[in-house]
Amino acid sequence: MKSTQNNNERAIFATKFGAIATTVGSAVGLGNIWRFPYEAGIHGGGAFMICYLAFVFLIGIPVLCSEFIMGRGTRSNIFGAYRKLRPDHNWHLAGYIGILASILILSFYSVVAGWTIEYCLSSLFGQLKFSNTEIGHGQFIELTTGWRPVIWTVIFLACNFFILIGGVTKGIERASNILMPLLFLLLIAFCINSFTLPGFKEGVKFLFHPDFSKITPSVLLGALGQAFFSLSLGLGCMMTYASYFNNDNRLGKTAVTTAVLDSLVAILAGIIIFPAVFSFGLSPEAGPTLVFEVLPYIFSKLPGGAIWSTLFFLLLFLASLTSTVSMSEISITYFCEEKRWSRKKSTVVSSLIGLAGGLICALSFGPLSDFTIFGMTFFSLFDYLSSNICLPVGGMICSIFTGWFIDRKFVKTQMTDNGKYRFPMLRPLVFCLRWVCPTAIFLIFLNSIGII
Ligand code: TRP
To answer: How far apart are CA 235 and CA 99, in angstroms?
Structure first.
């Protein structure tokens, strides 16, 4: 079969660069720049960082490979992939976890993406303050209480919807091929700026100096969830993207490149945020609002702070869009391919479900802030359930399935492109998928509920 042809008329990425850029585009987003610093902040910095990196390489890369193998090997969405590989079993039910979690994630993600629009426009129009004591938490509260976040969430979801419905996904991909490297450069520039801050040493020590006594069950679970979240793993998102890969895409290389670039962006974000946290006497444990409180301080020390701020939040908004487009794709392909709905109907229905979830999460910073379940607002609950439970469970099922239930030859064919490339890591990969990933995830779960 030629690389541009395939039997069920699915689209295929035109170039290798396009495939990698889109995969990285899905992975890099708020997860790296907003979620990583705040999770690292509440979980003790270095201790979290070391667990996170260990999980990315020991669990993330193998599970990423297994999603790639299943997606490209079957050219299907998550349901179709399980069904084609094991028609006689109910493995495809794992797809429902994917759909549920993708909707939960889309809901709270859109709220944070809405903040990026708010911050971008406020910096552009001079409302975001950079030079007095009100910046930080006070300003965040001012900008995000009441109904304002609801409006921005709706606007963000509308942008997501128009991209999906207008079929301009290609457009956003092309734009992100240029803009994502720009975001990367901007992060490097801010990182260099961090060196000049008085709290640089303390910030870097906080992030890179692991205090092993701080590794608690909740740190382990948080780091595991973050590794999955950041790599867009566990829901079949990467599976769906891999179903659009060319036949000669070297899956192992793509997986490693994605993981390395994704972790790099998270580390850069950490190097930007923590020195500032210590320089300005803030607390690293602020939670989900951390990055939005700290960044204005950083911009306030830069000449032309408002311009940097506008540009940064604009790029962050675009990075969020490439991620939400990828997570929406999970439910849309489900409705299209499993329920045989038209693409338009599928997009409308999944967007409406996302909108309902988004509204609930947006309100949990205002009118619904006192409404908590297990001590968490809807926003935090959706994040916790999806990232710390659904994603690792989805990843565990995928790795057990690939390790134990798919023919080893199929795995080999996918990883070596039918013997065209050498893939010396086949044995270690299968070993990880069979033993390391499921056992580690299972033990972390047991540990976090206090059983071991
Ligand atoms: N990885 C993205 C980020 O870091 C978020 C994301 C996109 C995601 N698609 C996903 C998370 C699928 C989990 C599953 O911002």
So the answer is: 7
- Evaluate: CB of 27 within 6 angstroms of ligand 1: yes
Which of 4, 15, 429, 65 minimizes the C-alpha distance to 239? 65
3-state DSSP assignment of residue 30: helix
Contact 269, 32 (CB under 8 A): yes
DSSP 8-state assignment for residue 419: T
* Residue 112, ligand 1, Cβ within 6 A: no
Would you say 71 and 406 are in contact if contact means Cβ atoms under 8 Å apart? no
Which residue has a Cα nearest atom 14 of ligand 1? 232
Ligand 1 pocket test, candidate residues 237, 329, 350, most atoms within 8 A of CB: 237
**Does the predicted model carry a pTM greater than 0.85?**
yes
Per-residue HEC secondary structure of 66-119 comes to HHHHHHHHHCCCHHHHHHHHCCCCCHHHHHHHHHHHHHHHHHHHHHHHHHHHHH
Q: Which helix (H) or strand (E) holds 299?
A: helix 290-300
Per-residue pLDDT tens digits of the chain, which is 452 residues long: 233 334 445 777 777 788 888 899 999 999 999 999 999 999 999 999 999 999 999 999 999 999 999 999 999 999 999 999 999 999 999 999 999 999 999 999 999 999 999 999 999 998 888 766 667 888 888 888 778 899 999 999 999 999 888 765 676 677 778 888 899 999 999 999 999 999 999 999 999 999 999 999 999 999 999 999 999 999 999 999 999 898 989 999 999 999 999 999 999 999 999 999 999 999 999 999 999 999 999 998 899 999 999 999 999 999 999 999 999 999 998 999 899 999 999 999 999 999 999 999 999 988 888 899 999 999 999 999 999 999 999 999 999 999 999 999 999 999 998 899 899 999 999 999 999 999 999 999 999 887 87
Counting from 1 in the atom list of ligand 1, the atom nearest the Cα of 235 is 14
* Nearest CA-CA partner of 156 in 390, 387, 416, 354: 354
- Distance from C-alpha of 325 to C-alpha of 232, rounded to nearest angstrom: 12
Residue 176 in contact with ligand 1 by CB distance below 6 A: no
Q: How many CA atoms lie within 13 A of 120 on its CB side?
A: 16
